[in-house]
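REQUEST FORM: STRUCTURE PREDICTION
Request ID: SP-0412
Submitted by: Lab K.M.
Chain count: 1
Length (residues): 345
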Amino acid sequence: MGNRELHFLSRLSAYTLKSFLIRVLLVSGVGLLFLFFAIEITGDKNIRVTGLEYFQVVLIFNVISESNVFLDHLGERFFPIPEKLSLRVVLHILVSLIIANGSVFYFLLIVKDALFFTHPIVQLMMLFGLIFIFILILVSVTLRIIEKWIFSVRQLEDIKRMKLKSDYNSLQAQLNPHFLFNNLSVLKSMITFEPEAAVHFTQNFTDVYRYVLQSKDKATVKLEDELEFIEAYIAIHKERMGEALQVTTEISASDLKKEIPPLALQLLVENALKHNTAFKNAPLKISIKSSGGNLLIANNLNPKESEFSEGTGLQNLIDRYSLLTDMQVFVDHGSELFKVEIPLL
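STATUS: Completed
RESULT:
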């Protein structure tokens, strides 16, 4: 049973017109079904039930039902579930039985026939009514527990979203002041010795930070936008690393319009740069390919010595995907290649 169905069930006891009409229809059907069973069980073929008697059965069962709904709301106010579950159930049963007995005596005053309650059908209906009360109590408590459970799940999801939002902000902070100052130092040197190259460097540097600011409040971005950003991001590193960094992309035209979480590629490229050495004679090779509705990012392994990683950035990406889709992020840490496959949305 899905969350939508559970939410629908948990709202059956609500004081809304829709919930009330659903309760009346269900309870009326149950009452008439009990009456049918009572007639069948007694085997009295000569009995004729009048329209008024049908109405009385429906009325009594709905009075019992709505009384229990009222008791449920009253009980939740003074004896909330789950803190006082046992006391709540006991009091609910006692008060329901008092209401049921009161209804019987009131009906006796209307009928004015003491022998009426000795009829087998009437006795069966009283037994069914008692069973109905216990079913109602069980259902009301169960629905209240479901409602509390759904509320708790939503609270946990909200907390998780807030945490992931915080983690996402931390992810954006990977482009931190150190990165800024380091590249400003590079820019200063380039202005002095390579003024023409400094212009291209500045443009890429500007594009990177513009993209970060524009995407900071988005859940997903188009792959083509992320690729434009990552090209500028890689260009900054290539100004420093030269041929020691080699990046190839192979993306189908149809996949360019699909979406991924913002900075997903930056995280994976940065992860490769952070944990691997790169030299002209032993370059770091990063490939970005799309295939089968996924994006595959792979890099060769030239691990840095004494490099420790908690893997929080990659886990952050996995957690962000878990909020967006049921599709999985696959990580393959081989002996020669490190590969991450992320779904295109």
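NOTES: The beta strands are 221-222, 245-250, 259-260, 284-291, 294-300, 330-333, 337-343.
Reviewed by: T.R.
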